[in-house]
Amino acid sequence: MPDATGLELVAQSLRERLGDESIVRTTYFREQATLEVRPQAARAVLAFLRDDADEPYDFLASLHGCDYHPQEPRLGVHYQLLSTVRAERLGVKTRVPVAMPQVPSVVDLFPGANFQEREVFDFFGVIFQGHPDLRRTHMPEDYEGHPQRRDFPIGGEPVLFTFNEHESPRWYD
Amino acid sequence: MEITRQKVDGATAPEDLRVRQLRARQMLRGELDDAELDEYVESRVLATTLKSAGEWVQNWGRANALFPATFGLACCAMEHISAIGSPRNDLSRFGAEVSRASPRQADLLILSGRVSIKMAPVIRRLYDQMLEPKWVISMGACASSAGMFNNYALVAGADRFLPVDVYVPGCPPRPEALIYGIIKLQKKIKGHPDAGWRERYGAHGTEERA
Q: What distance in Å separates residue B127's CA from the closest CA in chain A?
């Protein structure tokens, strides 16, 4: 883990390289270092951290989505980077609004991100620009909507318990 | 065997059935004399016993040589595997252990686990590829009714898209429960097609004639 000082050093080198506005904030919470970046800068940040940083992170351990409803911007994409040399982890987060959920793809940097970006697209509807084959992974091809968004109806059928028995009178017929 | 529903009354019943009914009434009233009675009994008994004996043998063979498809969906599949494969539960004692890796060779589909909406068309295709006569056991709460899941991904009951013969409750059912379900199915195949539901539902008088 980079400590809080290390995280600020990483953030400072990113600001020098990519401009001040590319890094939104840094958080250091329970020994976990996280950079929050603008979505347009996400790919450049990851490319810098992989190749040009003083202490590079060579492995993308995880890429996943998140819905911060009702906060805005709602959708989040989280990258967990790992340095296999130093055994250090660094989180990179980015947030996009539902109206324009576009994040540059990092498949060319980390090929393992391919299916994970497809999964985030499937469940949250984040569009990864430059992805070679952005299709659904889990839901059927003709499914409408992105079911892990928090405003998506839960679907299924109401289960009959004693507390909601009165809502379907004479269910036993 | 062709199954037709026949309404029993003089105007619309087939000639053959009507004649048989009248003959039976005569017999009950004692109006048939000896020679005629012997001839009638001989013809009827020979025909019906041969036919039913043939069917009995056929059904007995089918019931005791079930070929389940090698097919599991979720956690119930562990109990399914244990019921079929393990020496403790050894399903071959009941003649249903020859698990076939192709639906073309199987005649029993055990739906062991939750059925997602993406899997449902696949299962339906597997079912359509199976040989007739074929049977389906819905194993566990999920395959029968989506169980504890109430969400966008699952089909609430496999009987939405294919006919199910036996439902095995449980989450998951123990191997003994699955074996009990298979024995129920064997009884059904062996000529108790209703498996007792007419008694439970008071549905006598709705039988269909062969």
A: 20
Over the range B11-37, which residues count as b (16 or more CB within 10 Å of their CB) and which as e? Answer: eeeeeeeeeeeebeeeeeeeebeeeee
Residue in chain B lying closest to A161 (CA): B148
Q: Is A173 helix (H, G, I), strand (E, B) or coil?
A: coil
Domains of chain A in start order, with CATH, are: 4-129 (3.30.460.80)
Tokens of B16: 């053959």
Note whether A153 contacts B149, CB cutoff 8 Å: no
CB contact under 8 A, A154 and B150: yes
DSSP β-ladder status, A88-96 and A75-83: antiparallel
A167: amino acid identity, one letter: E
Question: For residue A4, is pLDDT > 50?
Answer: yes
B21's tokens: 């009914």
Structure token digits, residue B115 = 């059925």
Three-state secondary structure call for residue A157: coil
| Residues of chain A found within 8 Å of residue B123, distances taken between Cβ atoms | none
Label residue A103 exposed, middle or buried (CB < 10 Å: 0-12, 13-18, 19+).
Answer: buried
ipTM over 0.85: no
Residue B127 to residue B163: CA distance in whole angstroms: 10
Tokens encoding B70: 């090698």
What is the distance between the alpha carbons of residues A136 and A143, in angstroms, rounded to a whole number? 9
Is residue B40 pLDDT above 80, yes or no?
no
SS3 content of chain A, % helix, strand, coil (to 5): 25, 25, 45
Please tell me whether the peptide bond between B172 and the residue prior to it is cis, using omega within 30 degrees of 0. Answer: yes
Helix (H) or strand (E) holding A126: none
Examine residue B133 and say whether the peptide bond preceding it is cis (omega within 30 degrees of 0).
yes
**A12-42 pLDDT, tens per residue?**
888 888 888 888 888 888 988 999 999 988 9
Full-model pTM: 0.70
Residues of chain A neighbouring B117 (CB-CB closer than 8 A): 140, 143
Best mutation site among A135, A139, A144, A171 for testing chain B: the one with the most B CBs within 10 Å? A139
Let me know the angle formed at the C-alpha of A86 by A84 and A91, rounded to the nearest 5 degrees. Answer: 75
CA distance A158 to chain B (A): 7
Categorize the per-residue pLDDT at A75 as very low, low, confident or very high, splitting at 50, 70 and 90: very high
